[in-house]
Amino acid sequence: MTIKTVSTIPFTDQRPGTSGLRKKVSVFKQPNYLENFIQSIFDCIGGLHGKTLVFGGDGRYHNREALQVILRMAAANGLSKALVGQGGILSTPATSCIIRKYHLRGGIILSASHNPGGPKGDFGVKFNVENGGPAPEKVTNVFYERSLAIERYKIMEAPDIDIDTLGHSRLGDMDIEIIDPVSDYVELMEILFDFKKLRGLFSTGQFSMVYDGMHAVTGPYAKAILVDRLGAPEGTVIHGDPLPDFGGLHPDPNLKYAKELVEIMNSEVAPDFGAASDGDGDRNMILGKRFFVTPSDSLAILASKAEKIPGYRTGLKGVARSMPTSRAVDEVARYLGIDCYETPTGWKYFGNLLDAERATLCGEESFGTGSDHIREKDGLWAVLFWLSILAEERSSIEEIVRKHWRSFGRHFYSRHDYEDVDSQKAHELIDRLRGQLSDLKGQTFGNYCVRDADDFEYKDPVDGSISQHQGIRIFFEGDARIVYRLSGTGTQGATLRVYLEKFEANPERQGQETQEALAGLIKVADEIAQIKSFTGRDKPSVIT
Ligand code: G16
């Protein structure tokens, strides 16, 4: 086997976004595109000799082919050992778990997360660092700089590696171990949660649930835990086999794309609990019978009940949420007397807080919740947390949420997405808002008077790094808020996200339907930002 050095020229668009480098499959399939980015990573992370990296992905189209290329490049670049998820499969949380458990140098995850798959869909590459978390911005910036200067990459000339059979093989001097993608993760869940109690919940025969794997990565994990370990009946996990095109589904666990699950949960014979995860298994959606739990409320409720769960019995050190996430968890933190951190969108911003033991639970409005057990958000972990609450309280999801609102107040919350809008227009909209910030204070729109407005800037309390322009926030008298930002994960045009939030302390007024309760604020959001005229759309493409 020989090592080949291939001349290349840089691509100028390899700057990682909110979560790794995400592009259309057709972009990744261009000659040298994947190779350039992988070589940039290897060049920046230093000597690979004596090091182990883990490799896997969410099973989407191009996952297996890309993995073969990356393994050949890893061997050519002197990596000593590669751990590879069997079949090329590894969820994002499982990868984080494995990096931490075996003290690895890091890992490469092939995923475009909740973005659609298939030949016309999206592909992505994420690098996770030693703590198991996504590479922070200062690291991804270095990858990007390197990608702009790259002139060659190294690759081993060798036949394809068998990634389907467990065990060891060699590629040049590199040891390859094909590992079971599920077992380390399941072991960690068994430490955090009381599986005996959860088995008790299913064995009553009085409790039912459905979990939607969306034909993405979590099916095998969900079957191993829910069916094999906890005794849930076969059929509990739907869309449970990972497929390269996700079976035509869009693996984004929200009310629009988890259509079949939502129909089941809205039916007259709905089970007690419904949940779904995304492409790479780090997101979760939680549903009760005909009842949707917002991710922001979910985080607040988990925080308020954490001490009942074995893994969190000693209490929470603090909590953290991304800025656009509703402030429901802030109320819980106040009640518990712990710190609550507000970070920019992107799980990578939680890493320092978790490492420094300032936060134990973190969450985002974008269906991500997690804790210090790993350094990624974790879809099945959130499901097991909710199952544990249900096993403890034996009441319905809806009752649990309504009780929470009565105690802490309700944050009516919704996100309106305008997808694939003209990128220039979307940037103009944000720039115009930015230019208006100093004039907005004191102005009244509809029934809402602006108390304050800014462009969110975050100073990491651990390393002092500063992240600017993280979203336009407009605060109103009476504790309402609108946030505008552009998504950092889309691959086509721009996605404008508008986050709407209104606090209601009075239990008598907490029963309203969300979009109705927010109707006035939705109008104000358009009036201030001129959404219709900039985007040419009269309604959002997705409402969550
Ligand atoms: C990624 C990030 C999350 C972020 C989400 C949405 O999730 O890991 O932290 O909240 O994207 O980001 P944006 O609003 O910029 O599109 P995932 O599940 O796609 O990796």
Multimerization status: single chain
Number of domains: 3
**Intertermini distance:** 52 Å
Task: Write out the distinct hetero groups bound to the structure.
Answer: 1,6-di-O-phosphono-alpha-D-glucopyranose
- Major pleated sheet: 7 strands, mixed
Describe the protein in words:
With 544 residues, the chain is of the alpha/beta class. It has 3 domains: 2-180, 3-Layer(aba) Sandwich (Alpha-D-Glucose-1,6-Bisphosphate, Chain A, domain 3), CATH 3.40.120; 185-408, Alpha-D-Glucose-1,6-Bisphosphate, Chain A, domain 3, CATH 3.40.120.10; 410-543, TATA-Binding Protein, CATH 3.30.310. It starts with a strand and ends with a strand. The model has no long low-confidence stretch (mean pLDDT 96). 1,6-di-O-phosphono-alpha-D-glucopyranose is lined by residues 18-19, 113-114, 278, 282-283, 322, 345-347, 364, 366, 368, 487-489, 497. 1,6-di-O-phosphono-alpha-D-glucopyranose (G16) binds at residues 18-19, 113-114, 278, 282-283, 322, 345-347, 364, 366, 368, 487-489, 497.
Task: Tell me the layout of helices and strands.
Blueprint: E1 2-7, E2 21-24, H1 25-28, H2 33-44, E3 52-57, H3 63-76, E4 81-89, H4 92-101, E5 106-110, E6 122-128, H5 137-147, E7 152-157, E8 167-171, E9 174-179, H6 183-192, H7 195-203, E10 209-212, H8 219-229, E11 237-238, H9 259-266, E12 273-276, E13 285-288, E14 291-293, H10 295-305, E15 318-322, H11 328-336, E16 339-343, H12 351-355, E17 361-364, E18 368-371, H13 379-393, H14 397-408, E19 410-421, H15 423-440, E20 444-445, E21 448-455, E22 458-459, E23 466-467, E24 472-476, E25 480-486, E26 494-504, H16 514-517, H17 519-529, H18 531-535, E27 542-543
Helix pairs in contact: 2-3, 2-5, 7-13, 10-11
The structure holds 1,6-di-O-phosphono-alpha-D-glucopyranose (G16).
